[in-house]
Structure formats: C-alpha cells, structure tokens
Amino acid sequence: MTQTQRILVTGATGTVGRQVVAELLARGDAVRALTRDPARAALPDGVEVVQGDLAEPDSLIPALEGVTGLHLITFGGAYFAPLETGPRILELARAAGVRRVTVLHGGGPSPLEDAVRADDDVDWTVLMPVEFMANCLEWADGIVTSGEVREPFVSRLSAMVHEGDIGAVAAVALTEEGHGGQEYVITGPELLTVGDKVATIAAARDREIALVELSEEHAIVRWREAGHPEDVIGFLIQAYKNTPEVGRTVVDTVEKVTGYPARTFAQWAAEHADAFTATAPAIKA
Ligand SMILES: NC(=O)c1ccc[n+]([C@@H]2O[C@H](COP(=O)([O-])OP(=O)(O)OC[C@H]3O[C@@H](n4cnc5c(N)ncnc54)[C@H](OP(=O)(O)O)[C@@H]3O)[C@@H](O)[C@H]2O)c1
Predict the structure, then answer these.
(1) C-alpha of residue 203 to centroid of ligand 1, in Å
(2) What is the dihedral of CA 193, 199, 203, 206, to 10 degrees?
C-alpha cells in the first residue's frame, strides 16, 4: 500500500493552486496549503492551512516540516513580481527532506524557476500551461449584465487548458516517480477561437451571447481603464495578436501523465454555467 505523502502547495488560494490542492486531496495525500492570510483562504475541509510568505522564505520553515513534495509559484505580491527568494526556499526545502518540486511557469524569466532547475538534489518538474480556461470568467460581468463579450483579435486560436488538468499533472509529478527534470507543456484537447468559446458558454447557459470585436486601440483603452500596467497590456497584445505556436498547438501531456484525456472547454463551461447566468431569453423555447 502506498504511504500517504505530505505536500506543501504554495499559491494554494489561486486559480491553479486550488486545483493542485483538490487533486492531491482526491488522491488521498496530506495537503498543507500556504497563504499569507489563513482567515481568507477558504480551502476545503481536510486541508492544513498554514501562514507564510514566499518573499520571506524563513517564514516557510514550519510549513515545510515533514513535507515530501512542494508546489511553487514564481511570483509574489501585486502584478506577479518575480520572486528572488528561490535559492533560500530550495535550501530550506532540501533541509526539510523535500524530494519532489513542481513549479508553475510564469511565462517569462524567473529567478525562482532558475533556482529550481539548478537544483540537482530534488526531482523538479516545470509546469508550462497555456491559456487557462478560467480566464473566461473575466467575461462573466459583461455576459450577465449585457449579454455580450467585447474582445480584440477574435480569430486567434488557443489550445486553452482546464486548470483542473494543471492540478492533476502537478499532483502526479509531486507524488510519483518518473517526472524529474521534465518540462511539461500542458494544453487542452482542442483549438478554439474566441467565437468558439463564446458559443460554448452560450450553449452551457442556454442563452445567446453577442461577440463584439474590439480594435486593438479600443482594447488598450479598456485595459488602461481597468488599471492594467503598460507592461501587462503589452504582454496581452503580443499574446493575442501573435499567439506563440506553443499556445495554439495541442499536446497530449495531460493524458500521458494522468492517464485521462484533457478536459474540454464544454466541460469547463458546464461546470461554470452559473457564473454566466443572466435573465436573457433562452436560445431554445
Ligand atoms: N492566466 C493564464 O492564462 C496563465 C497561463 C499560463 C501561466 N500563467 C501563470 O500562472 C500564474 C498565476 O497563477 P494563478 O492564476 O493560479 O494565480 P492567482 O489566482 O493570481 O493566485 C495568486 C496566488 O499567489 C499567492 N501569493 C501571491 N504572493 C504571495 C507571496 N508573497 N507569498 C505566498 N503566496 C503568495 C496568493 O496567495 P495568498 O494571497 O493566499 O497569500 C494566491 O494563492 C502566473 O505566474 C501566470 O503567469 C497564467
């Protein structure tokens, strides 16, 4: 019988971290979840919630006690500022007996990820998901209040991934042999345009949604009004206008690592239909 393993999940209150936690719990592992504010964590029963800050690595010492696997994020604080504390976090992890580490790639240079890759004493796995399906939740307000989605570059293709599948790949890499030194690009099972996504959400909530294409200039104005910094806007324009090949190529990592096919956007939309529910007339009478 496999021994229960204790895993420390950082970023555990985030979009991906919650899924890593859920997948580990479902596998029967002991999950410890790091947050800067346990009172706001709202994590499921059975999770041991601990306080700590990745920007202050020594605050992780109690959290690392008895841990065999560690899931890391590469950023801290507002606007995904890259963490510089990787070497100390890894030093503490090794001292605590951590054997496996997963790190969620942030899409750009990361001193923390570099520190993980340079560590020969742990089995590390870099998780490189493409666009999260959860990003579509940003459309919920517009869909609920006016039945429309306003987006630029609506023909762009995306191999978007269900965040549950990122969590599932992480859970396997954190608890099973054979994933050390791997970089896993993680995608969904299909390529979708913005129009495909909107139609899928419309079907899931059984209400029409209008797709309004914005010009690049108009999109920039809206992102500025929403308070996005200029470098984030530049990243979004680049990613949307010239989506890199990796973001529009389906790969079979999820099935290879977990044994299950990657979840579809239709599944995701059905799970989240309530978030998009409005009072507009139903498509079908
Ligand atoms: N969105 C996409 O399509 C996409 C695609 C590929 C990759 N990514 C990458 O995914 C990452 C974002 O992941 P996410 O969406 O799951 O994050 P998220 O939902 O924004 O959650 C942020 C998490 O970071 C934790 N955190 C922030 N600063 C911290 C600190 N100093 N110490 C400890 N914890 C801290 C927060 O914990 P507390 O507040 O509880 O402390 C929270 O759990 C980024 O690196 C992004 O580049 C995103």
Answers:
(1) 30
(2) 150
